[in-house]
């Protein structure tokens, strides 16, 4: 760990604006000029180093309820897992499933283009193992999901465009209902054969879904004999189809995808192979406070990137120009750095920036980590055995500022090939590894941005807590 965090003293050149120098780990961030019109991007800046110190922080426990036992589950990709102590669909026998109507909450919230074509079927493919396991065991699958954020019945958010792809992946014709409750749905359920799949219409067409109204949950539950929650992406919300139905359906168990998410995001983070590194990016410190604090209770190395770094810069008295700074979080940034040092966790921040002067001048904004940062971060990551990544290193939506984020994605892919456990914790990080084309080689790609974030913060997920407790077994 020490070899990965050796700091080099760098000093700032004197400018008209006062700046501060301190010890630093070598890294960088690239900048653009934001003219008053905000319509043009200025390039060709010079490289200069900002002084900064290597430190780390963390103050709260990763309060996850992790099973002390190692369990195993059956199905695709079955293996021993350390998980939240919840019963899995793999724990159910053929006798438990044959002829039973199973209400499956999946997360099929896939992006569609203007012609209603699926542009990314990742979430559909992720739901397939659980559905296949159920139909192969003679269950009658009643599949529920949301799509988008509809206000009442909204045709463009219908799940109808998903039917062809679902049918193709499952190898059977999926039946589509025009509603998710009511007499017509009940008739379709009654006609469903063993091994058949009925896709209900968007559950969020009813406002009662997100309000978790008991009567609506009861209507959904009345369609089935038991419940399988495989929608990790919505597990952090107590909705009728994720939490409410568990009050009326027993057993209520986790699907394979949900189980895998818990395996990696709880198990691997709570008991990682060391050294364990966490990479946290994003625009604001405020959105990642809980993650930073929780991960620093567990990790050996923390790498920070994205717009949040400038709040840390300013907290140390450095000139940050027009870069994003949360003024009300400066004291927090200072305390995090101090606590990090006390805990002995090595925190690396990008510290030399590409600018036309010796410090970030007014009117310029840092938008990516640069080549020195990539080099330093890569050297640190080379020492690790487990890595979790949540949040981009810059504004990677623009190719000019995607270099740092894409470099991290490629490095994690390289390390994954060498046996390092690599976990991509949802959201923009997933988009980045998919953009680079290395998603398939990562150990785990989380399907839930908000859910993975809350799980990493140590929060309990209502959609998980509501499931039946598992009975630990020896493996």
UniProtKB/TrEMBL annotation:
GO CC terms in record: chloroplast; cytosol; membrane
GO MF, any single term: phosphoglycerate kinase activity
GO biological process assignments: galactolipid biosynthetic process; gluconeogenesis; glycolytic process; reductive pentose-phosphate cycle; thylakoid membrane organization
The EC number(s) this enzyme carries: 2.7.2.3
Keyword NAD among record annotations: no
Cofactor field: Mg(2+)
One Pfam family matching this protein: PGK
UniProt KW keywords: ATP-binding, Calvin cycle, Chloroplast, Kinase, Magnesium, Metal-binding, Nucleotide-binding, Plastid, Transferase, Transit peptide
Top-rank taxon, per record: Eukaryota
Key word Nuclease present: no
Reaction equations catalysed: (2R)-3-phosphoglycerate + ATP = (2R)-3-phospho-glyceroyl phosphate + ADP
UniProt binding sites for substrate: 107-109, 146-149
Full protein name: Phosphoglycerate kinase
Lineage: Eukaryota, Viridiplantae, Streptophyta, Embryophyta, Tracheophyta
């Amino acid at each position: 760990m020490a070899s990965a965090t050796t700091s080099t003293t760098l000093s700032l050149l004197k400018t008209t604006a006062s700046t501060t120098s301190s010890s630093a780990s070598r890294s960088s961030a690239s900048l653009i000029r934001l003219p008053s019109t905000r319509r043009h991007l200025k390039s060709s800046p010079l490289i200069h180093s900002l002084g900064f110190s290597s430190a780390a922080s963390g103050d709260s426990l990763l309060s996850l309820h992790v099973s002390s036992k190692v369990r195993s589950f059956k199905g695709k990709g079955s293996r021993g897992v350390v998980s939240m102590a919840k019963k899995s669909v793999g724990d159910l026998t053929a006798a438990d499933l044959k002829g039973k109507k199973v209400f499956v909450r999946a997360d099929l919230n896939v992006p569609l283009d203007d012609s209603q074509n699926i542009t990314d079927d990742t979430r559909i493919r992720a739901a397939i193992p659980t559905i296949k396991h159920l139909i192969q065991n003679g269950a009658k699958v009643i599949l529920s999901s949301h799509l988008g954020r509809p206000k009442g019945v909204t045709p463009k958010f219908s799940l109808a465009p998903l039917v062809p792809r679902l049918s193709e992946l499952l190898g059977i014709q999926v039946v589509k209902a025009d509603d998710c409750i009511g007499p017509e749905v009940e008739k379709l359920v009654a006609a469903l054969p063993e091994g058949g799949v009925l896709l209900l219409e968007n559950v969020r067409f009813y406002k009662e879904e997100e309000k978790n109204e008991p009567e609506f949950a009861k209507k959904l539950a009345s369609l089935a004999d038991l419940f399988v929650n495989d929608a990790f992406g919505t597990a952090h919300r107590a909705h009728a189809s994720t939490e409410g139905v568990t009050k009326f359906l027993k057993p209520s168990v986790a699907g394979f995808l949900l189980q895998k998410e818990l395996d990696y995001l709880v198990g691997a983070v709570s008991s990682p192979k060391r050294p364990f590194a966490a990479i946290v990016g994003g625009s604001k410190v405020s959105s990642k406070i809980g993650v930073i604090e929780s991960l620093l209770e567990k990790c050996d190395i923390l790498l920070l990137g994205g717009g949040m770094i400038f709040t840390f810069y300013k907290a140390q008295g450095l000139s940050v120009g027009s870069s994003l700074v949360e003024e009300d979080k400066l004291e927090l940034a200072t305390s995090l750095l101090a606590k990090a040092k006390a805990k002995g966790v090595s925190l690396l921040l990008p510290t030399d920036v590409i600018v036309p002067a010796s410090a970030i001048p007014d009117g310029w904004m840092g938008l990516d980590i640069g080549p020195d940062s990539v080099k330093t971060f890569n050297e640190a990551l080379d020492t690790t055995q487990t890595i979790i990544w949540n949040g981009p290193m810059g504004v990677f939506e623009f190719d000019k500022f995607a270099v740092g984020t894409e470099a991290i994605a490629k490095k994690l892919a390289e390390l994954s090939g060498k046996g390092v456990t690599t976990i991509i914790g949802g959201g923009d990080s997933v988009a980045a590894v998919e953009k680079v084309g290395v998603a398939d080689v990562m150990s785990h790609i989380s399907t839930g941005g908000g859910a993975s974030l809350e799980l990493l913060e140590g929060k309990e997920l209502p959609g998980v807590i509501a499931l039946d407790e598992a009975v630990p077994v020896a493996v």
